[in-house]
Amino acid sequence: MFQNIKEDIKAILERDPAARNALEVILCYSGFHAVILHRIAHWLHNHNLKLIARMLSQFNRFLTGIEIHPAVKIGKGLFIDHGMGVVIGETTVIGDNVTIYQGATLGGTGKETGKRHPTIGNNVVISTGAKVLGPFHVGDNSKIGAGAVVLKEVPPNSTVVGIPGRVVKKDNKRIHDQQVDLDQVALPDPVNEALRRLTFRLLELEKKVDELEERLKDETV
């Protein structure tokens, strides 16, 4: 557990330019507090102290605004940035070096039993307000765009945007030792791209119509 806590601090210092030192992270970062309290609650849950674990997770929610079920499995280096409103359901599994922004939900889609929440791979970024709902896998090095609603499997090295979520970028592979890509703005926009292509096509057709009209006038004269 202590090694994971060390990795959590390191992750925040690497990914948040506002974090000046480890002491500031320990004292002032609610996302860090939420992860630490969850690791304790998870230990209690695994040692069959489930009621105490749930009570601790509820206190965690009250203190930080972040709700994590004590059964959730979390790898090292999780960074929950400005985490107010983040919800992580019971059967969720989160890999290493994952970044989650405020208002994100890792949830289920109904009253199913068993595995009903997502499995998040390594080096994944889940942007502000994104909803990942269901018992599927989000592949390593993928990015979920702000406000996206993801309802099906996400391949590794992919970017997902929209409602419902669509893969708009794939296999733009990162170098192994590269930092996690935290850019939430410069994401592909498939709707805008389609409209742009239609606009260019319309301009081409209008030009051809004008040329045909001019030719008909010349032939008439």
Describe the structure.
A hairpin with a 4-residue loop joins strand 14 and strand 15. Helix 3 runs antiparallel to helix 4. It contains five helices and 15 strands. Helix content is 38%, strand content 18%. The protein is elongated, with a radius of gyration of 23 Å. The chain has 221 residues and is of the alpha/beta class. The N and C termini lie far apart (89 Å). The strands form three sheets. Strands 3-6-9-12-14-15 form a six-stranded mixed sheet. A five-stranded parallel sheet has the order 1-4-7-10-13. It has a four-stranded parallel sheet with strand order 2-5-8-11, with no helix packed on it.
Main sheet overview: 6 strands, mixed
Unreliable runs: none
Termini gap: 89 Å
- Rg to the nearest angstrom? 23 Å
**What is the H-and-E element order?**
HHHHEEEEEEEEEEEEEEEH
Helix coverage percent: 25-40%
Q: How many DSSP helices?
A: 5
Mean pLDDT, all residues = 86
What form results from the Cα inertia axes? elongated
The strand order across the widest sheet is: 3-6-9-12-14-15
Report the β-strand fraction as a percent range. Answer: 15-25%
Structural class: alpha/beta
